[in-house]
Amino acid sequence: MANEPGRGFHLSEDWLATIVGLALVLVIGFGLLGPGAQSLKLSAAPGETVDGSTRVMSGWKASATLNGDALALPVNIPTRFDNQTVYTLTCANGAISASATQDLTLSYPPDGALLALNNECDGDVVVTYTTDPILQWAPFGLFTR
Amino acid sequence: MRGGFWVGLVLLIALTLLTAEIDRWIAASFRAQGVASNPLEYPLTAVIIGLIANLILRVLRLHDYIRPALRTEFFLKVGLVLLGARISLGDLFAIGAGGLIQAVIMVSSVFMFTWWLGGRMKIEARTKAVMASAVSICGVSAAIAAAGAVQAKREQVTYITTLVILTALPLMVLMPTIAHALGLSPAVAGGWFGGNIDTTAAVVGAGTIYGSEAQSVAAVVKLAQNVLIGFVSFALALYFSVVVERGQGERPTPKLIWERFPKFVLGFILVSVLASLGAFSAPLVKEVNTAMQWLFALAFVCIGLEFSLTDLRKAGWKPVLVYMGATVFNTLLALIVASVIFGNYG
After folding, report:
1. pLDDT averaged over chain B?
2. Cα A32 from Cα A34, distance rounded (Å)
């Protein structure tokens, strides 16, 4: 798969492929064409309910604390947010539970979802959602099943 | 022609999207019948769609117009650079070392056998050199590199490259089937595909059909073979200068080895080194992997679109017999060598 030597200055197909390949890794890795790294932090005092809007995408990573101590998250904790959906996280008896409902009567940001944190626990609860900066472009996934 | 490139590129992307949709539909149909994995993986679907589009474009006399966009080798090379993200340096050394040993054995044996058989069938020396390089190293690119080294005619190259594609396509589908029947491990199957199938695209295709591990091994083994192009080109140029032209031709210098070296392999190694150093997160590797599958799919569609039998009809049947004989020899030898080298891998 080598190339004919060029005349004068000529970037061979091999070098071009190398540069494009490395550029693709950079573009995907640093999310240069995508929305970039996302984060959402919700803090709720005991008895308080707070909410925030979030971008519709997958690959979210969640963590939570109760009075500064790490809280275990349920297996159904959402890691993908769909359009026009409200995701509710409830802290009760020192544990987090999660549910999702589609409510078309609410107003959402464009291409967005809502995340609500309902704190019925005794201490302050902080839930943090983050995504990697990597580009997640839906058509990329067509060949992965 | 610039317009043709962009129109062709849009067409290529559309055909690749169509491949993905049809592939998903085929997979769903198999799942509905209780077959968990799709036996008709996307490389075959992509080539068939490319062939159908090829036929339609030729009937409409539009094939030449979109030809500038058919960059099979380029898409493949970019995809192979990205493959580095999935292969750690340890694996690269393990597979690469085995691959290099296999490449030296295969390239020298298959080259000599093809040269000998071509001599017995009285094939012209330049055709013989281009064919022996194509069948023993990596198909189209090796044919082009060898043609440059021995100053073969353009018709000789197009003839051999048509033979390469014509042989590689059935092998891409048949070899994974035979490997399944023989119960080969993914590493041995990958080594076999990489050592035998002539074009890198079809090697990746066969590996993809067999599974992810086979795809990695097949690609690395083929890359190991690719890096020998420079050495073979140099040896051929020297042989033609000293023996065939009896000192009348220009003597090649060792610089030729670097000129013919497939530089994208360096990109592949660099990405592999970065991956081994932990520069890439798991989600990044996943996204890079899907981008790679896209590039490979574009290359497979291009193979179907580029295929032509016109050049084959012009040159007669003798070289076809030699090529087929060399391919059978290559297939059997590669199976033995891959079984020995990759039998204990993994």
Report:
1. 86
2. 6
DSSP code of residue A9 = S
Cβ–Cβ gap A59/B283 under 8 Å: yes
Q: Which residues pair with A88 in a beta bridge?
A: A99, A116
Instruction: Give the up-direction half-sphere exposure of residue A52: CA atoms within 13 A in the CB hemisphere.
Output: 14
Among the partner-chain residues B145, B260, B267, the one whose CB lies closest to the CB of A17 is: B267
Whole-number Cα distances in Å, B71 to B196, B320, B339? 23, 26, 34
What pTM did the predictor assign?
0.73
CA distance A102 to chain B (A): 28
Find, among B19, B6, B2, the residue nearest to B299 by Cα.
B19
- pLDDT for residue A5 is more than 90: no
Q: In chain A, positions 23-52, which contact chain B (CB-CB < 8 Å)?
A: 24-25, 28-29
Give the gap in angstroms from C-alpha A128 to the nearest C-alpha of chain B: 19
Record: contact A24-B82, CB cut-off 8 A: yes
Please enumerate in sequence order all residues whose Cβ is within 8 A of that of B249, keeping only pairs 6 or more positions apart, or say none: B151, B240, B241
**Residue B222, token pair as written in the block:** 């083929």
Cβ atoms of A1 and A7 closer than 8 Å = no
- Over residues B122-145, the mean pLDDT reads 86
Q: Is the pLDDT assigned to residue A94 strictly greater than 70? A: yes
Q: What is the ipTM of this complex?
A: 0.78
% of chain A surpassing 70 pLDDT: 81
What is the average per-residue pLDDT within B234-241? 84
Tell me the DSSP string of B242-272.
IIISTT-SPPP-THHHHHHS-THHHHHHHHH
Structural contact between residues B135 and B323, judged by C-beta atoms closer than 8 angstroms: yes
